[in-house]
């Protein structure tokens, strides 16, 4: 039944995803607030029809939801008392991510290194897309530079080629030149070049000071976040070495034969989870939930136990809460 009511305010926030063949974002203020992900190429033999993909996703959705909830519960529980290191840009995002690292087998240092290098790649893309980025870098190769925006435009014109000056977007006025410099200043700073807009003298004339940091704190670019992974502990025995080999490339084997969903690069599974699950299943098959509870007793989350099951290639029977895990039987010659 419809009724009138007072004004209601809803405060909501969600991430915005932009995609494209080339990077759709080129301005530093946007890239500085973004996480850049490069999707892997799908081999022809692994391409799927849309109906096959969504059917596979529907089958995997309950377990994916459970994994997300495990991570979220841990983050909500630990975030208020977490001792955080100096945080980068998007501090809340970084804090939540640090709180969520233990359930997925990462450490806070692993996340921060991956995020730092991802931001370094973003800054590098800003400078590569800028018409004046390389010229400003050359300008302070040997010494600092100071001058007005008019001086800046003159030196940029002097150091550039005619073809570059003809490009759309090349500054045609001192104001446009200083505006371009302001736009790329955060990315220059990340690459060890400081840009300051100051006033000097009695006339309070506006000057631009460009300096190169003596201490190189450049944020180096990194190809992708997924390639930064914790080191795997040395295997204890022959069986563990086989499991470690399957974990080393960041991919986990499928649970029971080919599955329509591809395996994706993920952080390695903690070895203690693999050893615990193998020890349980060597004695007898175990209900999945009972095995996960054993993991909880050892401080291992449910999502990590599920990934340990993938590493071991366990056989699953049953449905829902009645799923039973068992080790694959090996032939005598194996």
Structure description:
- This protein is mainly alpha-helical.
- Among the domains are: 130-212, no CATH class; 229-334, no CATH class.
- The chain has 12 helices and 6 strands.
- The chain has a 3-stranded antiparallel sheet with strand order 1-3-2.
- The longest helix is centred in the N-terminal third of the chain and has 29 residues, at 50-78.
- The chain is elongated, with a radius of gyration of 27 Å.
- The termini are far apart.
Keywords summarizing the entry:
8% strand, 12 helices, 334 residues, single chain, three-stranded antiparallel beta sheet, mainly alpha
Share of residues in helices: 40-55%
Query: Between the first and last Cα atoms, what is the distance in angstroms?
Result: 69 Å
The rounded Rg comes to 27 Å
Structural class of the helices, strands and pairings? mainly alpha
What overall form do the CA principal axes indicate?
Answer: elongated
Instruction: Profile the largest sheet.
Output: 3 strands, antiparallel
- The parts where pLDDT drops under 50 for at least 5 residues are 216-266
Largest beta sheet: what is the strand line-up? 1-3-2
Number of helices: 12
Order of helices and strands: HHHHHEHHHEEHHEHHEE
Mean pLDDT across all amino acids = 77
Q: Tell me what portion of residues adopts beta-strand conformation.
A: 5-15%
